Amino acid sequence: MDRFKEMELLVQIAETGSISKAAETLKISVSAASRYLLSLENRIGTGLIQRSTRSLSLTTAGSDFVLRSKAILGDLREAEALASDAVAKPSGLLRVTASLSFCLLHIEPLLPEFTARYPDITIDVIAENRYYNIIDNSVDVAVRTRQFEADSDITIRRLAATRRILAATPSYLAEYGMPAHPNRLSDHRMILYDHAITPTELTFTRGVKKHTEVVRPYFRTNDGQIVRKAALDHMGILVQPKYIIYDDIKNGLFVPVLDDWHLPSLTMNIAFQTRRHVPAKVRLFVEALVDRFRTNRFEALWTA
Q: What's the whole-model pTM score?
């Protein structure tokens, strides 16, 4: 029996909770899967799964074996990737996730040149405003606005810092006026992003001065592009990272509000699985993204 196939089978059983689903994933018959499992249990000398009429679960020995198997299979895949990189073009499926705003502004514009240079890499872009578990969801590259990960199996590479700013259209400000101090925001219609840290509590600094203002949302949403569109429709003052609305400010569509006051900045980071050998498809995409940010000096533009 193929010992690596036995490991793969037990890992799939643990992840799917079913021998038949594990067999389907590995493209083998259920009877073959049962033989692999029996061979493994006989060689080890103990049961690895517990069956009941309604469910299937791992024994303690099975759980320990799955943990070690994942590490061994990961090493095997890295060894294969290393050998493949040495003799072949970078290839395979690359799963990338970031917020919708970041995908629109910085991942999609990167793709034409990247895919032309590496035609054997297939890109799967997942636009989500929530954080995927990279390992559990088979994500190769994630862009996030937090500076550390609780999981030591995740590597973080810094991309850029960006200010968070307030802005509104000239038409809105002509009708409602420009607030002179953060404490005047209560007189205005505020458009807020739900996934921000404390979205209704804004802490401003200006030199040594500090002011915290609790604002009431006139409109709120869980997506930065909807925040932007609502503000472009003159609905109120938005609070967004500068990278999302930099071009709108440059083109005169938005006017910064209280620009001499500063909200806490955000740091954008690339996250990917920690490995001794990072697959070529991941390494090349990360380098392309870093190079795009370095060449365009985005951090200097967004923190000014």
A: 0.69
Note the pLDDT tens digit of each residue in 53-70: 677 888 989 888 888 888
Domain boundary residue, one of 36, 67, 86? 86
Please enumerate in sequence order all residues whose Cβ is within 8 A of that of 31, keeping only pairs 6 or more positions apart, or say none.
Answer: none
Same domain membership, residue 238 and residue 183 = yes
**Rounded to whole angstroms, how far apart are CA atoms 303 and 210?**
19
Quick: pLDDT tens for 234-281: 999 999 999 999 999 999 999 999 999 999 999 999 998 887 678 889
Joined tokens for residue 230: 């609502």
Tokens for 144, please give them.
């996030």
DSSP 1-31: --HHHHHHHHHHHHHHS-HHHHHHHHT--HH
Whether the CB-CB separation of 225 and 191 falls below 8 Å is answered with no
| Vertex 246 angle, CA 285 and 239, to 5° | 105
Structural domain boundaries enclosing 277: 89-158+270-295
